[in-house]
Amino acid sequence: QVQLVESGGGLVQAGGSLRLSCAASGRTFSNYAMGWFRQAPGKERELVAVISRDGGSTSYADSVKGRFTIARDNAENTVSLQMNSLKPEDAAVYYCAARWAALTIFGLTEADFDSWGQGTQVTVSS
What we know:
The protein has about 130 residues and is mainly beta.
């Protein structure tokens, strides 16, 4: 498995921006599709964004399209989530997750991901 550590969470005003990072160690990072999930209190964990092993394909939840951008650097073993125009409903614990040897990122669900980070809190004030 790969070990994942998120950073970059915090408190931001509505309309502001945050950039989350996830550092990976262990197995070859480029063999993993990577995703960002979030879970708000009382809600189920949801997939926010996912990126293919080579970074050539990305997919986003409808609620964040046009505002969030997922990117990866396979040389640095990192994946990031740039979050712009944040809304109070974006507040949640954000998790980085990895899926080994995914042939496609489309259709991936939470159950498909093998490794998870500990999460980082994002709070958005109105």
